[in-house]
Amino acid sequence: MSVRKDLTTIRSRHLGSALARVLRDSGVLAQDVAERMGWSPARVSRLMHGRSRIAPTDVATVLALCGVSSGGLRATLLELAADLMSPTWLQEHGERPPVEPTAVRELEEAAVQIVCVDGTAVPALLQASRYMQALHRLNPVVPEGEIARRMAACVARQQVVERFVDPPLVDAFLWAEVLAPNGFGSDVLAEQLARLMRLSVVPSVRIRIVPQDAPGCAPFQLMRFTEAAPVVHVEHLNTTLLTQRQATVAGYQRIVARLDEQALGVEESRGVLAELAGHG
User: Fold this and answer.
1) What architecture is the 10-86 domain classified under in CATH?
2) Which of 131, 133, 240, 254 might form a disulfide with 192, Cβ 3.0–4.6 angstroms?
C-alpha cells in the first residue's frame, strides 16, 4: 500500500509549530484551546502539526488566549494563515535577516536529506566558528553587536549535522576556489579545513569538491522529507525564500544532478581536503 503524502505546506507547518511554542510559553493547554474554540482535541493536534487549515480570525483568538495581542509574531502568523496552502513563502526581513532563522531550522531538523550548494563560501551548516565570524563581519547589514548571537544561532542549526539519532544525509557541494587562501587569513582557513576534514568522515555527511573550471552557483539548500514535498531554501541579503512549488524545485534538482556529474567523488574530495589541510 502506498504511503499517503503529507498535505502540509511550509506555511502550515511553521504556523502550527509557532502556535505550539506560544501555548507552551504562556502555559495555556491545548485542552483550553479546544474548549474555548469549540474544537475537538484531534483538531488542535492537527493544527499544531500543520495539518489543519485555520482562519486568521481564529489564529488571532488563539493568540489572544495566550496573551499575544500585538507585535511582529502576531502579524507574521496572521499573514501565514491568510494564504496557508501556498507552496511558497517569501520572507522580507527589512534591513537584515533575523538573528535566528526559526523556519529554516525547523525544516533542517525535519529533513531526511539536505543538499547544500554554495559557489561563493562554505555552506552555513559546515562553517567553522572563525570562518563564520569573518563572513558576518563582511556583511554590511549585520551590526558588530549582533555577530555573537548570529553565530550562536548558526551553531545551534549545525547540531543537526552530527546528531546521534536519525541525522539527515547531508550532501555538500563546495567549489575548489572557496578553499583557496583568502583575505580571512591562514589561521581561519586552517580551522575551516580541519572542520571539513572531521565532517568528511561522518557517515551521514558527503562533501564533494567542485572543480575550479565548473560554472559558479549562487547558494541554496534542497531539503527532502519522508512524506512532504521537497523544499528549496534560498537566502539573500535581507530576504528568505522557502518554496515547495514543483516547477521551481525541479529547476534546482537539475542543478544538483549536474553538480553530481561534475564534482569529485567523496573519497577524492576527502583527499583534496587532506592535501589542503597539510595532511596529504
Assistant:
1) Orthogonal Bundle (1.10)
2) 131
